[in-house]
Amino acid sequence: MGSLSESECEVNNRKPYGLRFFEWMRKKPLSYKAHQAIVLLVTFLAYANYHASRKTTSIIKSALDPLSPDVGLKLNLWRTSRSSTPVEKTNQWSLSSGGWAPFDAPEGTSLLGELDLAFLGIYAGGMYFSGQLGDRTDLRIFLTLGMLGTGLFTLLFGLGYWANIHIFSYYLIVQMLAGLFQSTGWPSVVAVVGNWFGKSKRGLIMGIWNAHTSVGNISGSLVASALLSYGWGWSMAVPGLIIAFSGLVVFLFLPVNPESVGIDKVGDDFSCPKKAGEGITEPLLKSESEIEKAVGFMEAWRIPGVAPFAFCLFFAKLVAYTFLYWLPFYISHTVIDGKYLSSTTAGNLSTLFDIGGVVGGILAGHISDRLGARAITAASFMYCAIPALYCYRNYGHVSITMNVALMFITGMFVNGPYALITTAVSADLGTHSSLQGSSRALATVTAIIDGTGSVGAAIGPLLTGYLSAKSWSSVFVMLMVSALIAGLFLTRLVIAEVTAKIEESASRGRITSQSPVLEV
Questions:
Q1: Which of 205, 238, 250, 341 is the most buried (most CB within 10 A)?
Q2: Cβ(309)–Cβ(425) under 8 Å?
């Protein structure tokens, strides 16, 4: 009996404190579905806050550098259209908000671009290391530390406002460290969700769950914009405090896997929580040779499908992040229905791209579940994104309604495969049959795929800055070519899935033809 109570205590000690409190209040263990709901809710909240804190720097740019090319171009456009009111408003706003040194200098826009590039570069590189660490540590602790660190450096960036800091290197170092801590988020949350949900419904569930990206972008924009009038420091400090608080929620409530709360995995499903001592057939402490070994970095690259999907995401994320960073700017500088839209209106309209992305992520996940073919689904969406991008560029100026409709469709096809690859595909490959039952590759595989994609995310906006100075048509050509290359990287996997479907159909046909016919 002693060993039974020890086992029960061991499982209970591994449970997050918040779950222990819930079970103490209810006087009985939480069900498996309740644990799943908690996992989805807590990880959704966590990564939405990662994106919300990441979005803040794009909002405060107008306060740091009010005389950016964005404003200058608007002045030229408004003067061309002989509308004096916007010019007066812009001049008045610029005079009342003189910017923030060193970003208010002529090279201020370039400095802001360097901050973005430094953040995304460190984020992409850090992703590879975060995956390796995530598979070797307690993901609940690892994610908590990542969120606290993200909150700290987001807050320190805002502290420059109150401390009157005008040294560029300060903001550069803070952004680089923020990018490093941000890289802990995605591998961790995907690994945790992958631990709790079987492959059969993973695409649909993760497609819905992936809406946290858009929710975070939208909420981050709204919070930072609302606080901007009180001083740009508040637009950084408050989101920093929010994600730090969310990190504490993760620490208190997130169960990393079913085993950590006393639930055994059986195939693709899980049994109910055990009663004290029930079904205990192995020692509580395993020897080093019995402990499941985490998969190495190069070994994870060799898992079938990892490399094609990683390089596909490189180009898919290049397209998606170009829209994330440049879409409001593009809308405000494009004549739509014979007029230019304000920055506020352009920003509001751009959220429809994210909404389309939510729909696309859910559709891609559901379709891939029904077909049992992730590569076919992802490649089809990427190929459909090409005519969507062409139509948006060439017909989006006709009217607001046309622009909104085409933007929504473009967001659906661009973000659909991006969401599918970074969620369900990563989780599938992290539990690939070649791993022989090992589940210690989820974070590493997720980091490899999304880390490679994040390199593309850094390059896309950078190239757009140069190409847009010449022609926006060049930017859209780059995006369409990138979408094509993304689809082509999956060609071998698509052929394999199509072949498997044909063989499956032929096998069913043979079974049907060989079935005995009952005579009446």
A1: 250
A2: yes
